[in-house]
Amino acid sequence: xxxxxxxxxxxxxxxxxxxxxxxxxxxxxxxxxxxxxxxxxxxxxxxxxxxxxxxxxxxxxxxxxxxxxxxxxxxxxxxxxxxxxxxxxxxxxxxxxxxxxxxxxxxxxxxxxxxxxxxxxxxxxxxxxxxxxxxxxxxxxxxxxxxxxxxxxxxxxxxxxxxxxxxxxxxxxxxxxxxxxxxxxxxxxxxxxxxxxxxxxxxxxxxxxxxxxxxxxxxxxxxxxxxxxxxxxxxxxxxxxxxxxxxxxxxxxxxxxxxxxxxxxxxxxxxxxxxxxxxxxxxxxxxxxxxxxxxxxxxxxxxxxxxxxxxxxxxxxxxxxxxxxxxxxxxxxxxxxxxxxxxxxxxxxxxxxxxxxxxxxxxxxxxxxxxxxxxxxxxxxxxxxxxxxxxxxxxxxxxxxxxxxxxxxxxxxxxxxxxxxxxxxxxxxxxxxxxxxxxxxxxxxxxxxxxxxxxxxxxxxxxxxxxxxxxxxxxxxxxxxxxxxxxxxxxxxxxxxxxxxxxxxxxxxxxxxxxxxxxxxxxxxxxxxxxxxxxxxxxxxxxxxxxxxxxxxxxxxxxxxxxxxxxxxxxxxxxxxxxxxxxxxxx
Amino acid sequence: xxxxxxxxxxxxxxxxxxxxxxxxxxxxxxxxxxxxxxxxxxxxxxxxxxxxxxxxxxxxxxxxxxxxxxxxxxxxxxxxxxxxxxxxxxxxxxxxxxxxxxxxxxxxxxxxxxxxxxxxxxxxxxxxxx
Lengths: 587, 130
Known about the structure:
The structure holds 2 protein chains of 2 kinds. Chain A has helices at about 1-10, 25, 35-110, 115-125, 160-165, 205-215, 295-300, 300-390, 395-425, 435-445, 450-455, 475-490, 525, 545-555, and strands spanning about 130-135, 140-145, 170, 185-190, 200-205, 225-230, 260-265, 270-280, 285-295, 430-435, 460, 470-475, 495-505, 510-515, 560-565, 570-580. Chain A is α+β, with helices and mostly antiparallel strands.
């Protein structure tokens, strides 16, 4: 099983990951760093594919967040409004009962013995939440009292609530401890005695009942509903802020009448939604502010569940996209590599074939050049032998020496040619060395010397004496010259001209111009001449590789080649080359 | 000269631009009792043939001449003197050249260097047939 997986992985493992450098092939590759290409391809595709996904997910997140926040705000606002209605109703109901009692009974009835106790009993039965009832005159003296505390005869003149009660017809106090030392609040109704002076009917409200009313609106354990006064002092116990009368940092603008919902942070830094509104009845305003606080985290489980689902979906999508991109990129880059590799191998074969063709062309020239002096040697030696075989007369030494000199001259000619040939063959080795361009041109032209003579082709070479020696791969440079000069000879009609000139154009560059007055290249073919296998030569004389290889060789030497040609006028190849090639550039 | 008295009145025309080669060949032919004439280019050879053509038994023709191609000279010789055998003597003739020359009526196509004995055998054979 493991072996199977291993062999499968081996087949899908991309070829370019196994690429080994080959100095002969490397220069023919279109791309050099396939690893980089692969990484860049994955990166670009991943960014293109994942950026919109990320963007859409972010927008989706925000929309859901806003929607959830809005929903939570609405719910909190509704809860606050309903609680406010309950609390307002609680106070208004009891205040109305007091107003009714005052108007119905009047001062005399209220201050009659046991009259007040009977009323308290009925009120408790009817409404509940009242702990005692008392009648107080304008001087603060408690005229009558009914309730469980022993408060008869108490004077409230100096109590803040009493002075406030005198100023208004109806009054609701804050929660305070007072004489009984128990948290309570009072509601009071001012009325007029038969003698025209004021008196106050006061009822004490049980805070427990109020707290129960608030608690009945709690939904879940994460909701805190409580009352504070305008200064932020707790009027009922709070889960978040503590016991009654604790001072909080909550502050409220006094002109606020609507329910206000805000996002806040609790002291434990957990986000909360806080809503508040002022409690007021139709009859009187109260000092209470209702505060409803909900811990956001507790209300967010739906959103968190949704976010988890989104995260999973997005995460799986990203992994799938990355997998697909990686596989697609690997496949494409691998195909590209294989095509490039095949091309490089073909180009190398072409270059080697072209070298063989060059050698073949040279061989023809060499055979001609050597055969002629050999024929002279053959005939002269034969003649000297004949002199002794066919005549009896003694031969003059000077005559014999003259013939032997002719033989020696001819052997010298052969020697020169073989030396040139040997030098030429050595140039096929890859090596950078000092090269004299003029000598190289002369060597190459020497193989065309006879042809030029017979065909009346005038060959001009113009290289200034100051022209520097080049440090380059002389084999490649020679092959460039052979290809271009061979081409020129094939294009030239008898009696035409071939001019080869070289000059130094910058301290680092030289220019070589090979210009002929041959048939020229038609304009439509000018763009194609460097393409492999493009040939206009008939009867399979040309392989179509010469100029393509030449173009590649010039590039390898770090140079450029351009061609200008007019059909029927001639062709001019201009090559620029560095005087000193950079080591790393050559392969 | 051993054979000078046996000079056979046979003219051999050598058309070759290689001066030394042509001179030596000519001398060796003469040593063997034949007349020989040298021309170094095509036009001179064709001009000489106009006046002396009737005496010529054999022509040795190089393919690469300074003024004309050997095949052009061969064509003109065959037009003016179709009976004179022409042996092509070349330094680096290709198979294509051989076929072309044979089509144009060349007697033989020989690569340099030339074996003089082979030439003499051929010459005797030509004389006998003519």
